[in-house]
UniProtKB/TrEMBL annotation, chain B:
Full protein name: Branched-chain amino acid ABC transporter permease
Keywords: Amino-acid transport, Cell membrane, Membrane, Transmembrane, Transmembrane helix, Transport
Membrane spanning residue stretches: 6-32, 39-58, 64-85, 97-118, 138-162, 192-214, 226-253, 273-296
Source organism (scientific name): Microvirga arsenatis
Leader sequence residues: none
Record's bilayer topology term: Multi-pass membrane protein
Subcellular location: Cell membrane
One of the Pfam families matching this protein, by short name: BPD_transp_2
Family statement: Belongs to the binding-protein-dependent transport system permease family. LivHM subfamily.
InterPro entries assigned to the protein according to its UniProt record, in alphabetical order: ABC_transp_permease, BCAA_transport_permease
From TrEMBL, chain C:
Domain of life: Bacteria
Origin species: Microvirga arsenatis
InterPro entries, per database record: BCAA_transport, Leu-bd, Leu_Ile_Val-bd, Peripla_BP_I
Record key words, sorted: Amino-acid transport, Signal, Transport
Entries under Pfam families matching the protein: Peripla_BP_6
Similarity comment text for this entry: Belongs to the leucine-binding protein family.
Signal sequence, start to end: 1-23
Ranges where the Leucine-binding protein domain occurs: 27-360
Protein's name according to its UniProt entry: ABC transporter substrate-binding protein
Length: 343, 306, 391
């Protein structure tokens, strides 16, 4: 019980450039999606779904940064979602709708929260770390439910989306989509450069063997805390975007179930590749959205009543699907992509 | 009045704590001995409650229902072990988390599929249906006292099993060094099965015991699972003694704190602010408590030496 | 692999969006309800009520064949927002019917109303949607959230209770409930006790109640919390000594679990299964035959929602293009509501009667709520005057 993550999944470096095709295809697909959305005739719906995918992709990627590269399993990551969302919501309710103010405030709040809770949490290891981050997440959740002035448990609706440098451009679904894509790409590029930097190598070193890192003169705590703060800020940014996408914030953003979902997205996609987290988020959300319909469509040979019964009980299919993925596909969806190349 | 209230609260705290202990005991053993994170432990508690509801509707007797539910819960636990969990022991923790989460999704929906979404009810057994008057006008149900007694009895049995039997010795040895136990020629696979089945049965027992006083509904195991994790982490993973103490502490902090937090705050704040803050703080108490414990003892109160 | 998933999703969206264009004639109604999690039973009543109505109306609403699309909001407001966008833009529904919970209503109100789709609530009636944020596209066949609580406040006042103990979960709806109770109750409140949401054990509160000896308690404990509170209140021997007034706590969704413990407990409602109108009798027996459960008010509201749509579209000749005409037709719709008297106020919420109801056992052994007395006649909610329909 010393390491939480097996040390085998040494990321992309050794497998070389061949895998670079995955993120390229991924971002190309995101860039092309608006065109398809226009063709579908339900552009608002498709865009809002894919915007959610990208937002959760950012959050999952932020978690992958500390989980996949630092073996720090944060079970309270949804708290940053909430911080970002509430920064937007609370400022907007006081008439400050400018994203250029909201986002920095959200990032600062996330950084501060991550700094304080991270400094305490990092005293612990393994499952104790999981549970202490859960504790801080829960505290923030209950704090949000008690904010009567901001809707308490019901949350609050935003009057409009954030202004961007004074313009109302984000009201347009395409513009919001584009903005989220830009954020996703920015966060991805930043994270990539971070993990290949000296900082990233030290962070991976702390995952492999903290003692040795200490022996050669690095203080793991400082690196881990920095990574935790950066990760928290990224998730906070995702929270700002989610508030704008849903035009709504509520404590439901930061339940422990939501934190759990983020972990599942990362594991589902495959640890320690960053774009794996985005793919995991996409797979999770799209399955959640379409599994009922897929079940309904593929069971056309059954009676209508049984079919809608099946669609309603989609979780009875989703659950075993997750189990099967774990049992038979090592390393999540990225593992599945990697395998045939190995021959 | 305050003294009676405190007394009632302590009783409630004890009862809640002992229920938590029944669930946490299995969880901490499975985690400590097998190094296996079983999120599906909470649904085993739910399954226990549903089984007792189904059997008591069938037999019309709580006693018979309990007798039938326990072996069924055990069999169900072993079935899950053989079908799924066995293949996860050598995986890393995150794989275990993901797969057992899949089990939660399936079973939460599954009980709804079989028994419907509406909460089920189990009548309190005739024999224990009465109440005792513990203060003027306040009756305390005998059944709750029975839960306390049953919880203490299970704790005592566990203490003897773990500390004074051969299996118990192996379990303790397994908690501190499983590969070594295996190297010494013990059939570790069988030991795992015993531990797992026993843990599942304890969780099922907890579910069965609370069925008459709480509502039996899909998802009832989710929140209790989180609390059980809080308990085993505070207690120190793998430590039955730690789980026992931590469960009682959490039970007391939650129930007693809920009532007295506003009263205490009233000493430093005006009544309106105290009640407002008290309401906000009350649900956070156990988490604040856990964070504080882990701050000072990063491996829980009774870390198992390894 | 990721591409496959994505294009699969898009293909599904594209194909599903493409289909309805051909079948223009069908009326589409989206049901947005909570169908998973511990509160799923409320959503099931509403879904079944609506589908029963569609069946009773021969599969047609306003003379048009109808397709009912049921989606589960999972009680997550942000999930609900995306599902609603799917209903509106992909499925092109003409009406959204639902939801159960106020937080879902608040979150989905804007996207639905902004798209000029009619939104008919079958339970949630948060105060801002009845007042300041009211919309010409939002109607409720239920009530404003406070009203059932007001019934009990009025009853407590009428019966001359001097001291009342209040108990609610610590969240917005809980606070609103107690505020609603206090609107008509002017006596002493010995304690306002808030417990954390999803509390399952009430022994400490019961101890306080026993020691304070109030004339009555009023509580709002929906779902599993209500099941537990009622059973524990009975077991503590308080039920026969201190009257138990509640709303959304003792109803047909909880009674199957509360059983005999609930008998005699009082509640406030705009309807009860034994309400004596021929339509209601027929509805209750048909519902029981089809779904093997006594219907709760959620089923009634949603049955009425279908009748409402049917009546409104009959008035417009089945047309839904002219929004103003549809709105006027809904506002004035003539249909036989299961609850008897029914008309809409200016804010889109009903002006209706409210009753004190009591849980009772029927001769066949099933439990239901039954009407004790009428408390309010043609009652308008307290927020209607804040509503100035502009947009």
């Amino acid at each position: 019980m010393t390491e939480l993550v097996e040390t085998s999944s040494a990321p992309a470096l050794s497998l070389g450039r061949r895998l670079e095709i995955v993120p390229i295809v991924l971002f190309a697909a995101f860039a092309a999606a608006p065109l398809l959305a226009m063709l579908s005739g339900a552009e608002g719906y498709v865009l809002s779904l894919l915007t959610r995918v990208m937002i959760f992709g950012i959050a999952a990627m932020s978690l992958d940064l500390i989980l996949g590269y630092g073996a720090l399993v944060s079970f309270g990551h949804a708290a940053f979602f909430g911080l970002g969302g509430y920064a937007v919501g609370i400022l907007a309710s006081h008439g400050i709708e400018e994203a250029l103010i909201q986002v920095p405030v959200a990032l600062a709040a996330s950084a501060l929260f991550a700094l304080v809770t991270g400094a305490i949490s990092l005293r612990t290891k393994g499952v104790y770390f999981i549970m202490i981050t859960l504790a801080f997440g829960q505290m923030l959740y209950f704090l949000a439910t008690s904010l009567a002035a901001y809707g308490g448990d019901d949350g609050m609706t935003l009057a409009s989306r954030s202004l961007l440098a004074g313009s109302t451009a984000l009201e347009n679904d395409f513009a919001l989509y584009g903005f989220c894509l830009l954020c996703l790409f920015g966060v991805y590029a930043f994270s990539r450069s971070l993990v290949v930097s000296r900082f990233g190598r030290v962070l991976r070193g702390t995952r492999e063997n903290a003692l040795r890192m200490e022996a050669i003169g690095f203080e793991p705590f400082r690196y881990q805390l920095t990574a935790y703060v950066i990760s928290g800020m990224m998730a906070g940014l995702a929270g700002c975007l989610l508030a704008n996408q849903a035009e709504f914030v509520s404590p439901a953003f930061m339940t422990w179930q939501r934190s759990g979902e983020l972990i599942f997205m990362v594991v589902l996609g495959g640890l320690g590749s960053l774009h794996g987290a985005i793919i995991g988020a996409a797979a999770f959300l799209l399955l959640e959205e379409f599994l009922p319909e897929i079940l309904h469509m593929t069971s056309f040979f059954l009676a209508e009543e049984t079919r809608s019964h099946l669609a309603e009980n989609w979780k009875m299919v989703f659950g075993p699907l997750l189990i099967l993925i774990v049992l038979f596909v090592r390393g999540g969806i990225m593992g599945l992509l990697r395998r045939p190349r190995h021959g | 009045m305050t003294a009676t209230l405190l007394f009632v609260q302590v009783l409630n705290g004890l009862q809640f704590g002992l229920i938590l202990f029944l669930i946490a005991a299995g969880l901490t053993l499975v985690f400590g001995v097998m190094d296996f994170i079983n999120l599906a432990h909470g649904v085993q508690y739910m399954v226990g409650a549903y089984l007792v509801a189904a059997f008591s509707a069938w037999t019309g007797s709580f006693g018979w229902a309990l007798l039938l539910a326990l072996p069924t819960a055990l069999a169900f636990g072993l079935l899950l072990e053989a079908l799924i969990f066995r293949h996860l022991y050598d995986r890393d923790h995150l794989d275990q988390v993901l797969a057992t989460f899949g089990v939660i999704l399936f079973l939460n929906q599954g009980v709804k599929f079989v028994w419907g979404a509406a909460p089920l009810s189990v009548p309190v057994p005739e024999l224990l249906a009465g109440s005792v008057e513990i203060a003027s006008g306040l009756l305390y149900p005998v059944y709750r006292l029975a839960i306390i007694a049953a919880g203490l009895a299970v704790a005592a049995v566990l203490y003897v099993l773990v500390n004074h039997t051969r299996v118990g010795m192996l379990v303790r040895a397994g908690a501190s060094n499983a590969p070594m136990v295996s190297a010494l020629g013990v059939n570790i696979q069988r030991l795992f099965m015993v531990v797992f089945g026993f843990g599942a049965m304890l969780a099922g027992f907890a579910g069965a015991m609370v069925a008459p006083i709480l509502s039996v509904e899909p998802g009832m195991g989710d929140n209790i699972l989180i609390l059980a994790f809080v308990v085993i982490v505070i207690g120190g993973i793998g430590s039955i003694r730690g789980a026992f103490l931590a469960a009682l502490l959490i039970g007391l902090v939650d129930t007693v704190g809920r009532t007295f937090a506003p009263n205490l705050l009233r000493l430093v704040l005006d009544p309106a602010a105290a009640s407002q803050t008290g309401r906000a703080v009350a649900p956070m108490l156990i988490y604040i408590f856990m964070a504080a414990v882990l701050f000072f003892r990063p491996s829980g109160l009774f870390p198992v030496k390894r | 692999m990721n591409v496959t998933i994505k294009t699969l999703g898009l293909a599904a969206a594209v194909s599903l969006a493409g289909l309805p264009a051909m079948a223009q004639e069908k009326l589409k109604v989206g049901l947005l309800l909570t169908l998973s999690g511990p509160s799923a039973v409320l959503g099931q009543h509403a879904r079944d009520g609506f589908q029963l109505a569609v069946k009773d109306l021969g599969g047609k609403l306003g003379g048009r064949d109808v397709e009912v699309i049921v989606v589960d909001d999972e009680l997550k407001p942000d999930v609900a927002v995306t599902k609603v966008k799917g209903l509106i833009e992909r499925d092109k529904v003409d009406f959204v019917v639902g939801p159960i919970f106020s937080n879902v209503a608040v979150a989905t109100h804007k996207p639905i109303v902004d798209s000029k789709t009619f939104y008919i609530s079958v339970n949630a009636g948060p105060s801002n949607l009845a007042g300041k944020s009211c919309s010409p596209y939002f109607f409720a066949t239920s009530y404003q959230n406070d009203q059932n609580h007001e019934v009990l406040g009025k009853v407590a006042q009428n019966r001359g209770y001097k001291k009342v103990y209040l108990l609610a979960p610590n969240y917005q709806a809980g606070k609103d409930a107690l505020a609603g109770f206090k609107r008509h109750y002017k006596g002493e409140i010995v304690e306002e006790s808030y417990v954390p949401l999803n509390t399952l054990d009430f022994q400490s509160e019961l101890a306080k109640i026993a020691s304070m000896q109030p004339d009555a308690i009023f509580t709002f404990m929906p779902g599993g919390m209500g099941v537990n509170l009622v059973k524990q209140y009975r077991a503590a021997g308080l039920a026969d000594r201190i009257p138990f007034l509640s709303a959304f706590t003792v109803d047909e969704t909880n009674l199957p679990a509360q059983q005999d413990a609930a008998i005699g407990m009082l509640s406030g409602s705009n309807w009860a299964p034994n309400l004596d109108t021929p339509e209601n009798k027929k509805f209750v027996s048909a519902y029981e035959a089809a779904y093997n459960a006594v219907p709760a008010s959620y089923a009634m509201h949603s049955y009425d929602a279908a009748l409402l749509i049917d009546a409104a579209l009959k008035a417009t000749g089945g047309k839904t293009d002219d929004k103003d005409a549809v709105r006027a037709a809904i506002q004035k719709a003539q249909f036989k509501s299961l609850r008897g008297d029914f008309k809409f106020g200016a804010n889109g919420f009903p002006v209706q009667d409210f009753y004190l109801v009591k849980a009772a056992k029927r001769p066949d052994g099933k439990l239901q709520t039954e009407i004790v007395e009428k408390v309010f006649d043609d009652y308008t909610d307290a927020y209607a005057k804040e509503c100035t329909p502009t947009n």
